[in-house]
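Hello forum,

I keep getting stuck at the same step: I have a sequence, I want structure tokens, and every attempt I make locally crashes halfway through. Rather than fight my setup again tonight, could one of you with a working pipeline run this one for me? It's a single chain of 371 residues.
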Amino acid sequence: MSRSCCIQTLSIILSLCTIFLATTTTSSNALASRRFINKIHKFREAPQFYNSPTCPQLNYSSSSGGGEEDDVVNNTCTTGDAAVHVAMTLDSAYLRGSMAVILSVLQHTSCPENVIFHFVATSSPENINRLHHTIAKSFPYLQFAIYPFNDSGVAGLISTSIRAALDCPLNYARNYLADLLPKCVEKVVYLDSDLVLVDDIAKLAETPLGNDAVLAAPEYCNANFTTYFTPTFWSSPSLSLTFANRKPCYFNTGVMVIDLVRWRAGDYTTKIVEWMELQKRMRIYELGSLPPFLLVFAGNIAPVDHRWNQHGLGGDNFRGLCRNLHPGPVSLLHWSGKGKPWVRLDANRPCPLDALWAPYDLLQTPFILDS
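Reply #2:
Ran it on my machine without issues. Output:
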């Protein structure tokens, strides 16, 4: 064999070795990455919380109606006002936040055994099973049910907004709570996944809705309400007259008390969907799932003290700058906006108020898992 052939053969062998090593390294890195991802999504078991002696006893309905026997078995159907029903969505990207919400609710209420959670999640059976296992493992005594949400119907109604996270179909599941939850659930407190409570949720659930209000939420009438809708909306008399004889104010949909009986009777899901369908034909608003709620309910909601939604702690939607608390007492801290406390804590760039979220973090770190 000539010297040139030997050199060529050796070059080929070295190239193959390099490719093999690179492939092996990439595969090892990918495997390590998958293992790390699996680790960081494991959560510790939360402590068990018990009712105080003065808590009323729950009365479970003998029949939930509409073929919802499973909900009776899962102890999610009750009669009377003793139970506090809480509705939330479960999304993989925000699951760490959801776990913190649950812990904060249970820790600060006098009657934790009377709190029943209703979770809405993407309808994949694998996803539902995984989430059910995760919740049950961290909260073995929690009364809860997970309801599958088929997002294909709402996906075609979503218009792009200023932040991609606002366009997630599950972000619109709150529009369909009256359809997803069993009929026996008549009143529910809806909570976002980026907040914690530092007060008894029963106080929020007892918010009076008056004779005809469908929902209650803290209102912020100093906010510039007109900015939530486009010039196209305000220049059309037929559209802008929507707010005639109303005094509309901004309210945040991340914390609401909803009368589901009145919602169902008034078919408010259809009303919201109709505005979303119009938005697809002519752009009348800019910001995700909030404007349809404003169009239907603003000016006709029951008031809630601002202490129950100290919102905006995540900063603005573009830069996620740190925010301070609003003046006054605090019962609920809400990291609405771009910045989430767990992301900033992991990046070692926390805002001062993120330290108030950290005690509710149930994340099991890789160091604990490897021990």
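The two ends are 58 Å apart (CA to CA). If your local run keeps crashing, start a new thread with the error log.
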